[in-house]
Amino acid sequence: MSRSLLYTLIALSSTVPAIGCVGHMNQESIQSSPVPAAITARQSAVASGVEAATDETTSAKFEIRPVAHRDFGEPDADQRSPTESVLTIDGKRYRLQPLKEESVASSSDHSLTAYESAPVLEVHESGQVGLPPEPVVIDSMGQSSEVAMVAAQMVQMNLPTALAMIDSQHPAVGLAQWRTREAYAALDQANVLWLPSIQAGFSFHRHDGNYQSSNGDIVDVNRNSFQYGLGAGATGAGTTNTRPGLVAQFHMADAIFQPKIAEKTAWARGHAAAGVLNQQLLQAATAYTELLEAYQDARVLEESRERVRELAGITSDFAAAGQGMQADADRMQTELRLLDSRLVGGQERVAVASARLAQAISMHSGETLVPMDVTVVPLELMAAGADKASLISTGLASRPELKESQSLVAAACEAYKREKYSPFVPSVLLGYSTGGFGGGLGNDLSDVDGRYDFDAVVTWEIRNFGLGERAARNRTSARVQQARYEKLRVLDQVAAEISESASQVGFRRQQMDLTQQAIATAERSYDSNLERIKDGEGLPIEVLQAVQALESARRAYLQAVTAHNQAQFRLQWALGWPVGDGQASMAY
Fold first, then answer.
1. Nearest-angstrom CA–CA distance, 420 and 129
2. Is 0.70 topped by the overall pTM?
3. How far is CA 520 from the centre of its chain?
4. H-type alpha helices, 18-133
């Protein structure tokens, strides 16, 4: 009987073929290659795994990717050994070597060990390290080919680690913090609005033809003038008021009120950044609990499948011995297949939860995150039986979103004051220029000597016969009212979130107690039914209902604990405290 071999392509040339095989990588090229952008300072756990895999790759001198070849002919004995052959593709020659099939995981394995297989590190020709899952075709002896996925890089993580990765390098947090810096830069600019600016340079002016003198006469004059130093643009007997050397031009209302407006706006941006940080911490904590729940749910399904598999074997033996019906054996096989389907769904939930956690903490989504916690335990972040009124009072005093809305109200009020008092304060133009100036008739440019100019202009403005002023006041007054109503909306939202989260914590704690009792009764039912079957009383199919009840009770308890923990995190976030694991006390 012919035996199909699983081969590995190893390039005999220095170039990488178009089919995607990984090229030759020597030690010098690996050391000189740039660090991938996906590995940052916040991903030290990932970086250590990459370095270890890179060292392994360096010692091997090349990267190996498994590829299946079916029905490949035997090589000539005089050209190569029985276990080696040469394959030519697009003019490139490759040596084929056998690879043990045990090194590739089968896709039919529903156990969580499929997620714990050794990572495959891929070194590209560019020198970057990548971790995408690659399809591997497996051709078993006497079986059809299947496609398995090599597991991506595994990264173990616990809740404190996930929360610690929400820092200034996180996209959402970094964006909010840079907006705060922008607001404080605008405040600095508003504080120096009244300071003069410096303008230095030179100017040249020439006039040919008719010119009107100061007494009204029209004269034909050909002249030119030149100026340099602080300020430029003076012509004839005029002053340097177009480009003064030192110029301060501002509205007194802006100099008085713009710093106050910018200060309140900067406060609002700072509180908004704190709110974004708390929100991202909440999302990371929630995503981690979902990932932990997905892994625990998969383990519950595995244990339930093991029980059903044992019952299926007993039921088949009863049917073969004539002590039971074949229909019962088929019923057990049906339940076994349904459990297999639920296990596949559980693996899907693990993969999805890992991707969501990676997004929440801004990690590479191709890396598989594995929780370090052994099991899900209830977290007690808040004392049981806390008064809702006191909780709401605490939240209204601490929530950064409410502080942000209050700061925006204050900024809107300062903007209204600016429009209210602007007609009564002047606009100011102060200019001082010094430098050289000279000129003459025709093409003559002489008599260049020092020159000094100082200009002071103060004007009051009433826009559009006063109608523009009234419109500006109405516009800013409307913004004040909008900001106040927005503050009331946020206040109601904060109170509702605190009340809702406090209620969820209480009711979900009761659900945990009830489902925990259900697990105890389901285990007693399963043990008693199994003992009765072993004693020869009844049929094995009668135990199936107890197995299903135990599985449902354990999954319900798992969901209740996860929902309780998420409610605890949400209540802490609703109170305006940063979501962290340092205050958590685990109750077993």
1. 62
2. no
3. 41
4. 27-32, 44-60
Give the pair of three-digit tokens for residue 395.
């939240």
User: Which pLDDT tens digit goes with each residue over 89-130?
Assistant: 555 555 555 544 443 333 333 333 333 333 333 333 333 333
392 vs 381, 383, 569, CA distance in Å?
A: 16, 15, 16
**533-562: per-residue pLDDT in tens?**
877 777 888 888 999 999 999 999 999 999
Give the C-alpha separation, 448 to 207, whole Å. Answer: 18
pLDDT, tens digit (0-9, with 9 covering 90-100), for 446-480: 778 888 888 899 999 999 999 999 999 999 999 99
Cβ contact 448:204 at 8 Å: no
Contact (CB, 8 A) for 207 and 239: no
Place of tokens 């299946």: 68
Q: Cα angle at 386 between 381 and 390, to 5 degrees?
A: 110
Lowest mean pLDDT among 218-232, 250-264, 502-516: 218-232
Helix H or strand E encompassing 427 = strand 427-441
Strand pairing partners for 149?
135
CB pairs under 8 A, 24+ apart, for 184-188? 184/266, 184/269, 186/262, 186/265, 186/266, 187/259, 187/262, 187/263, 187/265, 187/266
The length of the chain, given as a count of residues:
588
Mean pLDDT for the stretch of residues 364-375: 86
pLDDT value, residue 529: 87
Total H helices, total E strands in the chain: 10, 19
- pLDDT confidence band for 585 (50 / 70 / 90): very low
Burial label, 453 (beta-carbon count in 10 A; 0-12, 13-18, 19+) = buried
CB of 407 within 8 A of CB of 271? yes
Helical segments of 361-421, H only: 388-398, 400-421
Q: How far apart are CA 158 and CA 362, in angstroms?
A: 15
